[in-house]
Amino acid sequence: MSRTETAGASVDDASGDEEFDPVGTLALIAVYFAILLIAWVYIYFIEFLGRDLVVVG
User: Fold this and answer.
1) Structural domain tally of the chain?
2) Which end of the chain is more exposed for a tag (fewer CB within 10 A), N or C?
3) C-alpha–C-alpha distance, residues 15 and 24, integer Å
4) Residue 4 falls within a domain, yes or no?
5) Which domain holds residue 34?
6) Rounded to whole angstroms, how far apart are CA atoms 28 and 31?
């Protein structure tokens, strides 16, 4: 190896950057949308269909 290849390799190894994890990111997005879905189901089915509409304010 030449001197620049060795220097480039040591810089990449020493940087300590973590790689992008698409599975973890997808899991976080799925959890976020599950929370939104549960909130929507609660608001729609329990609040609005369970009783008359109430205007607040």
Assistant:
1) 1
2) C
3) 22
4) no
5) 21-57
6) 5
